[in-house]
Amino acid sequence: MDITTRSVAVIGGTSGIGLELARRFRDAGSRVVVGGRRADVLGQLAAEGFGTVSIDVTDDDAVMTARDTVLDLLPDLDTVVTMSGIGVAEDLRDPAHFADAARTVDVNLLGTIRVVDAFTPHLLRQGSGTIVTVSSGIGFLPFPLMATYAATKAAVHAYSEALRAQLAETGIDVAELVPPAVNTTMGASNPNALDLGDFGAEVMALLAHDPTPHELLVQGVLMHRWAERDGTYDDLVTQRSRALATLPGRSSSAA
């Protein structure tokens, strides 16, 4: 991918990894539209020279309206990055977790599908482009404290594989970004989280490879991605299960 000449929509780009990548695409020379729900941040980004669009990926009509706005701003749009995502701790012994689970599925999985579906017809008509989906290292090596988040990211991986197969020979590439913990709002409590700037630089270098890899794997996520192959999966899941002790009413021995 020539990251200096793209027309890019980053959906879910008002914070964290999405905003980091939006700025790096812009700084490399690409034209960028950022989509998100935070009107204050969208206003700030517009002042920085970004195109902006308000979007709620859980709302079918809002996604289609945002799609039209993006294509008005970037008629030659060739890159769609589906960044929207949420993740919360869940106590699976308490049925009250279901509301969080449903919201997580709606944003992370169905939101990704809605965005992909909205822009795929344009890319097919154009005969070229790239869709960047975002899964997670947690989709390959579960973090039991965030069960539904892990499940949705595993599903995004499977969906990305199917999407790539179905779009073969159309001129549309599908690249799956697989982040580990990164020092953003979601990952700030993890002492092992990667620096956001270092992560962004590594991702952009991977995107610039020819051809662009099917999976964008920074060094910090390789232990997650290949845990089963390397025989470390069971031990690592056991280690990560220790975080269950942080749930109300749990203890280290109960975890």
Word description of this protein:
This protein is an alpha/beta fold and 255 residues long. The chain is 44% helix and 13% strand. The protein contains 9 helices and 7 strands, in the order βαβαβαβαβαβαβααα. The chain has helices spanning 16-28, 39-47, 60-73, 98-126, 147-166, 196-207, 222-225, 227-230, 233-240, and strands at 7-11, 31-36, 51-54, 79-82, 129-134, 172-177, 215-216. It has a 7-stranded parallel β-sheet with strand order 3-2-1-4-5-6-7, with helices on both faces. The longest helix is centred in the middle third of the chain and has 29 residues, at 98-126. The chain is globular and about 55 Å long. The N and C termini lie far apart (45 Å). The mean pLDDT is 94.
How big a fraction of the residues is strand? 5-15%
Helical percentage: 40-55%
Give the number of DSSP strands: 7
- Unreliable spans are none
Q: What is the straight-line distance between the termini?
A: 45 Å
Structural class: alpha/beta
Computed over alpha carbons, the radius of gyration is 18 Å
What pattern of helices and strands is seen along the backbone? EHEHEHEHEHEHEHHH
Main β sheet profile: 7 strands, parallel
Short structural description:
Helix content is 44%, strand content 13%. The protein has helices at residues 16-28, 39-47, 60-73, 98-126, 147-166, 196-207, 222-225, 227-230, 233-240, and strands at residues 7-11, 31-36, 51-54, 79-82, 129-134, 172-177, 215-216. The protein is globular, with a radius of gyration of 18 Å.
Blueprint (SSEs and pairs):
Layout: E1 7-11, H1 16-28, E2 31-36, H2 39-47, E3 51-54, H3 60-73, E4 79-82, H4 98-126, E5 129-134, H5 147-166, E6 172-177, H6 196-207, E7 215-216, H7 222-225, H8 227-230, H9 233-240
Parallel strand pairs: 1-2, 1-4, 2-3, 4-5, 5-6, 6-7
Helix pairs in contact: 1-6, 3-4, 4-5
